[in-house]
Amino acid sequence: VELVDTPDSKSGSFAGVTVRARPLVPNMN
After folding, report:
1. Cβ atoms 3, 16 nearer than 8 A
2. pTM surpassing 0.70?
3. Residue 5: how many CA atoms within 13 Å on its side-chain side?
4. pLDDT at residue 4 in the model
5. Are 27 and 12 in contact (CB under 8 A)?
6. DSSP string of 1-29?
7. Of 2, 8, 1, which is closest to residue 22 (Cα–Cα)?
8. Given phi > 0 = left and psi -120 to 50 = alpha, else beta, which region is 19?
9. Which residue stretches belong to region Disordered (predicted)?
10. What is the predicted pLDDT for the residue at 13?
């Protein structure tokens, strides 16, 4: 399960790349 930040999930921002003050949700894709 990869964690993606919701606002930029389509922009290629993944956990470890863009992990700032954004809520992370499980990537269901």
Report:
1. no
2. no
3. 15
4. 59
5. no
6. --EEEGGGGGGT-BTTTS-SSS-EEE---
7. 8
8. beta
9. 1-29
10. 52
Both tokens assigned to 25: 């949700």
Q: In terms of Cα–Cα distance, which of 16, 17, 24 is closest to 7?
A: 24
Paired residues of 14 in beta bridges: 4
Cβ–Cβ under 8 Å, residues 19 and 5: yes
8 A C-beta contact, residue 2 and residue 27: yes
pLDDT, position 27: 64
Cα radius of gyration (the chain): 8
